[in-house]
Amino acid sequence: MPVQKYRSLQIKLTPQRLAILSYLNGNKTHPSAEDIYKAVQKQYPTMSFATVYNTLEALRDKGNIRELKIDPAKKRYDPDNTPHHHLICVKCNCIVDIHEDFDLNLPGKLTRGFDLIGKSIEFYGICRKCK
Amino acid sequence: MPVQKYRSLQIKLTPQRLAILSYLNGNKTHPSAEDIYKAVQKQYPTMSFATVYNTLEALRDKGNIRELKIDPAKKRYDPDNTPHHHLICVKCNCIVDIHEDFDLNLPGKLTRGFDLIGKSIEFYGICRKCK
DNA sequence: GAGCTTGATAAGAATCATTCTTAGATGATA
DNA sequence: TATCATCTAAGAATGATTCTTATCAAGCTC
Questions:
Q1: Nucleotide nearest the Cα atom of B7 (by C1')
Q2: Which CATH class is domain A3-78?
Q3: Whose C1' is closest to the CA of A55: which nucleotide?
Q4: 8 Å CB contact between A7 and A17
Q5: Chains A and B: how many Cβ contacts under 8 Å?
Q6: Sequence-ordered list of residues with C-beta below 8 angstroms from that of B100, at least 6 positions apart, any chain
Q7: Distance CA B131, CA B125 (A)
Q8: Where do the structural domains in chain B lie, given as residue ranges?
Q9: Could you tell me if B115 lies within 8 Å of chain A, comparing CB atoms?
Q10: What is the pLDDT of residues B26-73, one digit of tens each?
Q11: pLDDT tens digit string along A18-34?
């Protein structure tokens, strides 16, 4: 596992954190804290939920992962921090990435004095499995 | 209050429900369950949280309100069920409606076998107050 | 390398929004 | 008005997340 790669995160690299980073690296499944806990626990049986949450919070604050507001029941995390959008199944809540750059700008008269930061588009539908 | 207007909802119209509907009618603030509870409690001191949730669930299932997934800490409800998007302050979580029809289509090759239902665009920024 | 300081970990308690349960009350309809 | 399905209220239960506390480890300074 390329520890080097994580140096730039500027957070202390402990074995638990490396295990979480390794699980997230290249992961396309948008896991919840519980998903991550369960996966990493196999390797570190003493892993605690608090460590998972602390690490995710640190990574989010460093801009390394995105916290998704898609599932009202729980937070989900997106390790892919290139700009992209999501296609979500309204039945099973599964999420698929959409790597397409939509040329979309908010007309100046509608910004209501906001300093704009970004945008996010969610498409809703029913996935193949749920049909 | 136009009780007539709510007949089409096909739900039993009790005083508590009418109070909730009246609070929601024309409301542009995207309230949480707690906001609604607090507001309606003034009129009905015996109102319970369960009634608020039950009513919101019924209204949502009838398509009369939208449940917003914008705030990870709590559900928020949008009484405006005409198609529109949102502009959200990342600091105070305030939400402003954007009534602009963006011509936005997901290319067929990206649908991954989903039956598409709809889309939702969120713009993020910092509002005038929070600057 | 020893000691120090800061931050991380583990375990469980605490919190908070939401959902469930139950018994009793009320609206809708004929 | 009688019937019945549904609603209400109160509080318990749930479940994700956050907080607390006591250790422990990493990385710096000397």
A1: C28
A2: mainly alpha
A3: C8
A4: no
A5: 106
A6: A106, A107, A110, B84, B85
A7: 10
A8: 3-78, 85-125
A9: yes
A10: 888 999 999 999 999 988 888 999 999 999 999 998 888 999 988 888
A11: 889 989 988 888 999 99
